[in-house]
Design brief:
Structural class: alpha+beta
Oligomer: single chain
Number of helices: 5
Distance between the termini: 28 Å
Length: 186
């Protein structure tokens, strides 16, 4: 796959040339506090994630968001998925990160919708799910704006920043994005 095209941007699978960009992005002071502690952050872990994405496109995906700018194509962010349950065709989404300079353009929402459609309609997943920390209000608003349905809260599930944080659970099904149901226009 060369990439998924959106309006003024594209999602493409990350390659080895993106490692330094991803290390910098995931360690940025405005990004890191909102990522799961288990998220790959160092060069080796990110390289392994990229390798899994390349080796099994239906098993994992590490994508870079690229934006068409007047001075050329710029890397703006990243998003990822992992196969969670093969028989039930469930994918876990995560690692959505956008450089602060690219926020406020709707890239995260449009990119997430594009990736969701690809996973559900092209790769045949039945269900997409994601989880946000309860303190991540921007992440929660993003999930709802994309069309994910809030399914529950894991109370005080994670020790983060020295305090217990809730995990807010979201799900998205193919029928949530099919025309005529209203969800695609949320």
């Amino acid at each position: 796959m060369t990439g998924l095209r959106g309006n003024g941007f594209r999602l493409r699978r990350a390659d080895k040339a993106d490692i330094d960009f991803l290390v910098h992005l995931f360690s940025h002071e405005d990004v890191e506090p909102f990522l799961a502690l288990s998220r790959a952050r160092d060069r080796q872990a990110i390289a392994e994630q990229i390798e899994r994405s390349s080796a099994g496109p239906g098993e994992a995906g590490c994508f870079v968001i690229e934006v068409d700018e007047p001075d050329g194509v710029q890397r703006a962010g990243a998003m990822q998925f992992e196969l969670q349950h093969r028989r039930s065709r469930i994918a876990q989404l995560g690692g959505l990160a956008l450089q602060p300079a690219f926020r406020g353009r709707g890239l995260a929402a449009e990119g997430a919708r594009l990736l969701a459609r690809h996973l559900l309609f092209d790769l045949g997943f039945h269900r997409l799910q994601l989880e946000c920390y309860g303190f991540n209000e921007r992440g929660i608003r993003h999930a709802e704006r994309v069309g994910f349905v809030r399914e529950g809260v894991k109370r005080k599930a994670y020790l983060r920043h020295g305090e217990w944080a809730d995990g807010v659970l979201f799900g998205l099904l193919r029928e949530d994005l099919e025309p005529g149901d209203g969800a695609a226009n949320r």
